[in-house]
UniProtKB/TrEMBL annotation:
Catalytic class of the enzyme: transferase
Listed EC numbers: 2.4.1.15
Any one of the GO BP annotations: trehalose biosynthetic process
An example molecular function term from Gene Ontology annotations: alpha,alpha-trehalose-phosphate synthase (UDP-forming) activity
Origin: domain of life: Bacteria
Name the UniProt record assigns to this protein: Alpha,alpha-trehalose-phosphate synthase
Protein family membership: Belongs to the glycosyltransferase 20 family.
InterPro entries hit by this protein: Glyco_trans_20
Keywords: Glycosyltransferase, Transferase
Pfam families: Glyco_transf_20 (PF00982)
Amino acid sequence: MSRLIVISNRVSAPTAEQPSAQGGLAVALTAALREADGVWFGWSGETGNGRDLRFETYDGVTSATIDLPEQDVEEYYDGYANRTLWPLFHYRLGLTEFERDFQGGYERVNRLFSEVISPHIEPDDLVWVHDYHMVPLGWLLRQQGVKNRLGFFLHIPWPPTRLLIALPEHKRLVEALFAYDVIGFQTREWLETFHDYVEREMGGTVGPNDEVTVGGRTIKAIACPIGIDAREFIAGANGEVAAQTLSRMAESIDGRNLIVGVDRLDYSKGIEERFHGYQRFLETRPDARMNVSLLQIAPPSRATVQSYQEIRASLDALSGRINGAFAEIDWVPLRYVNRGLPRDVLAGVYRSARVGLVTPLRDGMNLVAKEFVAAQDPEDPGVLILSRFAGAAEQLDQALLINPYSPDEMADAIEQALSMPLDERKARWRKMYDNVCQEDVIWWRRRFTDTLSAVEPAVA
Ligand code: ADP
Ligand code: F6P
């Protein structure tokens, strides 16, 4: 078996400081790394001027991280990754900043990664690079003489060609992808928008068997939707902590129907639009009003970036206005919590909700939607309301699919969810549950690495 090398901006392998792997991706990849005796490389999340990788092996998994100088963090992570690529790839041209310094920092950090990591890559290793922070890394590793099979997975959407060409260096960025042997997208939709770019902007062709060819170089581009660690999540939802959470929630909602939203505090998640939709529901259904309560959990994210500070301020104001306008002396319509929750508590919160409200304006996948489904009680499942613009909508088509830009559509869906008969709730939930269990994170990881193992390695 080949060793697996994982490279991503954030490393979530378990360490002595953080002994349990956080999140589905971490669980799936650490299991694979443990089996394959691999290494997970990335940024430590700290600033510093050393160029040395710090290796740590914990519970059979090795991670290797490097600090980055402050200027690199500003230009690469805050800058090009989160002020240029993130908004652009989430269709938000108006929020996208185009600064040469950002691009310089991005290439500098990717080059640094290629230089420090390449000496640790052995000839038979499978190398798997993750996400928009590291698009050019494969090309730079090839410059370092790496001839291994190289894979890349994009966790976020691929933007329409007409948006992508607003990026001054769009050609350079996309050409770099052709250094990989396999590239993976979350959905068919993002794969097709990538095909469109290749045909229009690069004169390339899309062939059979997922092949894409540009200028004599053929790679595989696949749709490979990420899943959750369903088994672990279901166990969590049936565990002791979730049960305690369930009774705590039952006490606090006092017989009302709980609607829940859980997201990183990010403008792509449509939280503002969700609040507007809920407000529309409260305005237009005065009789149903007192029977519901919305709990929104949104820990701050990327807080040094201005657009994130702005969305946080907007949500603070909007949540205050909604409560100011509708609260009664014994009821608040909206509970807004800016804190993350432990995963087993989260599972209990999902399970106590009658409605999961997942309304991103654009999302590569959205794992919260899958976690909500996994956590439900099979005998009395809640209803998922899901934005049709989330990647998860391709698999979870039994959710109530809505356009998050329309407060009326959202208000109607809330009403439909609250009055849905048990039989219909069960039938919709069962189909989604089967999908979440079958196409889980282990399935995703195997599908990608099997595809990568099967290709002929590129000649650098
Ligand atoms: P993104 O990767 O853009 O943050 P996803 O929905 O795909 O969005 O994944 C988010 C992950 O972070 C999920 O596993 C979710 O459970 C977790 N998460 C989000 N918000 C919270 C929170 N408030 N507390 C705990 N975990 C959270
Ligand atoms: O899923 C997209 C993603 O950007 C991941 O790559 C990232 O680790 C996660 O969201 C959280 O973002 P950040 O690492 O910037 O906190």
